[in-house]
Structure formats: structure tokens, C-alpha cells
Amino acid sequence: MMLMQILIHTPLWVFALFLLLLWLGMRQMLPHQVKLPRATLLPLAMVGLSLYGVASAFGQSPGGPLALAGWAIGAAVLAPVVLLRALPAGVRYDAANRRFQLPGSVVPLVLMMGIFCVKYAVGVKLALDPALAQHAGFALAIGTAYGAFSGTFAARAARLWRLALQSAHASALEPGV
Predict the structure, then answer these.
(1) Which residues of 91-115 are buried (b: 16+ CB within 10 A; e: fewer)?
(2) 90 phi-psi bin (left φ>0, alpha ψ -120 to 50, beta other)
(3) N or C end of the chain: which has fewer CB within 10 A?
């Protein structure tokens, strides 16, 4: 009964956003080609969505600074971990056409759904108990979760940038090019 009430009171745009993120994530599961700006846009949008999640949940509340600190900690911990990992097999950059060839991956879908689900669950929880935004532990935990998602997204994009820059540098060093 309570779940039905929550769903009934959820604005329609939330369902549209869910479907959009689901569609975008599912597209990432198939091999595809993408240019560098497009490979950067989705991670930037998701980092923005996670920061919006922190701001909308904790904004001016006493938990706000803790949530932002958690976000920074989560991003700072996860970004280097992901950045140090090798690119998945099959990732290629064509410097001449300025395109990446990317294998399919479920990771973007998991990250997008993770951010969405945290944002939705926090929104519901705070609607039911607004005082929860004042709790330091809650703010820190949620901020850290958002930061971890953001750090992962940003590092995944940074690995592609690094590949593109290495390819451009290697092309510039080739004789006769």
C-alpha cells in the first residue's frame, strides 16, 4: 500500500528520466562507436546529476557540508582506482576519424541506475522524514555514494581521453605523417 502511494505521488518526469537512463544504459551494452565529445558528455551529465542529488537533498541543511565532503571523498577514492585500471579489451581510438570503438558494457547502465535509485530513494526517504537531512551519518553516506558514482564515471571518461591523447601523440611522432 505504501509503495503504491509512493509511486502515485512520483512526478511523471521521474519515470521519463528513468526510461531515458535505462535506454541510454542499455545502448551502452552493445558495441558502438563514439566521438570524444559524446564520450565526455554522458559522464559530465551523470556527475552533474549526482551533485544535484546532493544539493537537492541536503542543500542548506546542516548535513549539506558533510554530504559534499562525502561526495568529494567518494569521488577521490574511486576515480584513481578506476583510472589505474586498464581499458576493456576491444577499446580502440581511430585518430584519423576521431572516434572510439567501444565494446558493450553493463557498467554504464549499473552506474546510471545506481545514481537514479539513490536519488529516488533519498527523495522518498526525505519526503517521509524531512529531519533525516539533518543527520550527519545519513548525509555523509549519501554524499559518499554519489561521489563514488561520479568518480567512476569521470575516471572512465578520463581513460578515454588518455587513450586519445596517446594516439594523437603517437601519430605526431610517426615519420611522414
Answers:
(1) eebebeeebbebeebebbbebbebb
(2) left
(3) N
Q: How confident is the model at residue 157 (pLDDT cuts 50, 70, 90)?
A: very high
Q: Is 65 helix (H, G, I), strand (E, B) or coil?
A: helix
Cell of 33: 562507436
Question: β-pairing, 32-35 with 92-94?
Answer: unpaired
Q: At residue 91, what are phi and psi to the nearest 5 degrees?
A: -75, 125
Tell which residue, 111, 90, 71, has the closest CA to residue 31. 90
Cell of 34: 563514439
Q: Is 157 in contact with 87 (CB distance < 8 Å)?
A: no
**Contact by Cβ (8 Å): 55, 121:** no
For 37-149, strand residue ranges (E) read: 92-94, 99-102
Better pLDDT: 78 or 95: 78
- Specify the pTM: 0.85
Instruction: Give the start-to-end residue ranges of the domains of the chain.
Output: 2-173
No. of helices (H) and no. of strands (E), the chain: 6, 3
Nearest to 147 by CA among 62, 80, 60, 61: 80
Q: Which three cell numbers stand for residue 160?
A: 578515454
